[in-house]
Each structure stands twice: as C-alpha cells, then as structure tokens.
Amino acid sequence: MQSLIYKVFTRKYSLSLQADALELLSTVIAQNELSTVDATKWLELLADTWTKREAGPLVEAGPLKDLVAAVSAGTSSVSSRGADSASDVFTVISAFDVPPLWYDPSTKAFTHPFSKAEILSSAEAKASLFRQRYDLIKQRVLRNENFTPVMFSDHNRFRTLSTIDSLQGREGERFLLLGMLAQLEEGKLFLEDRAGSIELDVTNVGKRAHGLFTESSFVLVDGCVEDGVLRVDEIGLPPPESRDVTRNAFPNVNLFGGSPSLRTEVQLREIEVATDNGMVILSDVWLDQPSTMRALRVLFDGFSHSAPPIAFIFIGDFSSRPFVAGSGDTTQYRDNMTALGQLISEFPDISRSSHFVFVPGANDPWGSGALPKPRIAEYFTKRLESRLSHVTFTTNPCRIKYCAHEIVVFREDLLKRIRRNCVLEPEEGTDVAKHLVRTIIDQGHLCPLPQRIRPVYWAYDHAMRVYPVPDVLVLADRFDAYSVNYEKCHCVNPGEFSSGEFSFFMYYPVSRTSQYSKIPKS
Q1: pLDDT at 271 over 70
Q2: Could you give the CA distance from residue 287 to residue 344 in angstroms, rounded to a whole number?
C-alpha cells in the first residue's frame, strides 16, 4: 500500500510524506481492510483536503492524524445526519472575512499586504487600491491566449502591451495599452497606468466592444500618438478569464473565502443532486408594508406543500423609507423584523430546514455609506434569529458557498450609477443589462466607479472583487428583473419585490438555471 500512498500524495498532489505520516496512513488502511479502489478514493480525499487547507507541501503525522479524524467524521455526517445538515455545505461569508490577498507582480503570487485590514486603514491602502486592481487585471490579460505566444507558433498574431512611458518620441506609431480611465483635467479624458498618463482622443473611435465605460474603469486602448495625444481607434474591456483558468493558475489559493470543505467535489455534487430544491432570491422586501407581509405569507404557504427550499436570500432595503437613527424608526424596524420571524415560524418545515440569509440595503441600519456595508445590528434582529434554525445576517456584499457553488450577492442601484457616470455612451439598440454584467465580470470588481462617486473602504477593496468568476452573481438593483449568462456565470437581478409585482427568482444549482416568478396581487 505504500506505493499507492506515494502515487496519490507525491505524484498526483506533489506532497512530501514524513516516515511517521506514511506509517499512519498504512496502518489506517490495514485496520479498515480497505480495497485498492476504496483506499485510493480515501487517500485522494485526504490529499485534496490537505491541499485546500494550504497546510504546506510537507505532510507531518500530527496534523495528518487530525485530518484523518476530521475527514472520517465529515464523510460519515453525510450518511448519518443528512446531506444538507453539515456546516460545510452551506456557508455565508461576510465581506470582512474575505481573505485579504493582493497580487504581487514581482513574485507572481498572492500575498497579505497588511498585518490586519481595518475600516480606518492607513494611507498605504488608499495608494495601493487602484494599483492592485491594475496588477490583477494585467496578469489576467497577459495569460490570455491573444497575448501569450506559444513556442513554434506565429508570433505576429499575438498582441503586445505597451506602457505609457514607452510612447515618448514615437509619434505616429500604433500601440496597445492597458490602463485606467480618468479625468485629470476638466473635460479631458486620460489613460493612466503605473508608468504615467496620456490624454485620449476618442472622437473617432471606430470599434467599441460591449460594456459600460466609466472613470476608474480599466480598458484596452488601441491607437496612434499624435502631438502627445493618443488618437484612439478601438477601445474595449479587458478579456475575461474563466474560473478554470484562474484555478489552474493559482491552485492552492483561496480567494473566495470560507473554510475548505472536507468533501471532494464529486461528493458535493452528489449532495446538490440529492437536495436540488432551489434557492429563493428576493430584493427590496419592505416589511413596513402590509401588502408585503401578505405576499410573503402566500410565498411561504406555497413552499410549505413541497420540499423546503435550500435557502431564502432576503436582500434589502427592508423598509420603504430610509432609516433615521434616534427616531421612532428604531422600534418600528425591530418590530417589523420580529413580525417576519413570527410569520416564518408558522411554517415549521421551512423554519427548521431552510437557510435564511439577510443582506442589507442602503436604507437599512446602519453604516457610513461606504462599501462593504456592515450587517444589520443584532438589536434589530435578535428576536427573529431566535425563531429560526439557520439564519445569517451578513454584509453587503457577501459570499455564499453551497456545496461546489460559489455565489456573490450585491445590493446596489448599480446600473443607474454607472450609466450616469459613463464617459462613453454604449452602442444603441443593445441590452443594457448585458452591458452591465459584462462590465462587472470583465473589470473583476463589483463597483468600478471613482471613490468620490461610490466610496469603498480602502483595506477591504478585495472584498469587492469578482475574481475568480463565481458560479452565480446576484446584482440586486431597482431595475427590471433579468437573468444573463456570461463566462459560465449565471447573473440575476430579482427586481423589486414590494414596489413591483412581488417578483423573485428561484435558482436551481444542479441545472444552473433560474426561474422568474411572481405572486399575484390579491
């Protein structure tokens, strides 16, 4: 069996086993009389979990013994307690718990830039914010097939990125640049990179790719230099990168957050198939409106006659008007949350089995107006939480891990903000929702706007990333409901529940599809 252990740990996962660790694995396999097939599966599960935990390439007996016990407990929990009951199946990740990993172009690896991320962070974080976005996009672009020449191939069909400082004294030549759009002077558009800036002339742009172009967004620009100005012929967003390519480039880096599951992806897929009851996604659920409570009663009653959904994702605002601290809104807001808890508890199967996630909106208490927005204070939610078995009040944005699914949820009137601040008008007659989805994924950021328009806490900008591309992206917006597929990411906007037609989306993880639904008005 030792040869099998070496084959799995060393050859397949590039791990080095100490002698006592090798003896431990051999003993466990012998004591349990595992066949070669079963032993291989068990060893692969151990090695895969060790790698996900970033425990290092050297496998020692002490940590390995703990892992063996944990994996044994984790695999038995699926059969003994039910597939969806284990804590590593459904996890909500606060924006403040996302790993603070920044890309270092000198080492081509992710590092921890700060000893501790804080809301009141240092000036270093502010200075590094846009440089980090640039570095992260550039390494992605350089890995793209159009920029990476293959040995013995035609190098002429590959594009080369230039930097702004290399343009000096090269009038009339054509260049392809990657940089950030900025208005450094009133009425003039510039492109910035790490080396400098140059004024852009976009009056004769002949070809414009899909997307929405705002200040602080990163673009690829193709043009010629004339009189110190770059005359732009083509402009577009950076090419996206599939999550598989990103995973292969950084195989042992957890950019999404959350603890790695003790199960293999095959086991997680099996759980998904066994419990594919869908997730309910609602936005702008105004609990201070009687009509909303009546609609929610109809919603819960409908689901009470079938298997409970995996989760209900409630996205703010949870009040029809902005919350005013120190007024009567405090008591009213808490009572509204309590009333929702009472309503849900009337349906015991749902309240015991389904997960409930609450993401705050701009009008919910409280926060400074910058992103990420903290969770709703426990003072308002304690009574509701006491009535439900699985409930999480989290930040905006937040992340959700369900089995092998990675989900990003963001509440923001994003389309209106971005359209208002566009420096280039999108092509006429195109679907603006598709423009938005493409912009967010290609930028790799939930809010690619200037700090003066939509401030982000400097040390938590990494929590706003959309990198790697998630399986599901929920962009809750006061815009018409839509669902768009792009780069194997299913993006949905559930629309407004209370002020619209009581609409919501059902998302089904196995088929990776969603269904638009609405509750008839009584």
Answers
A1: yes
A2: 13
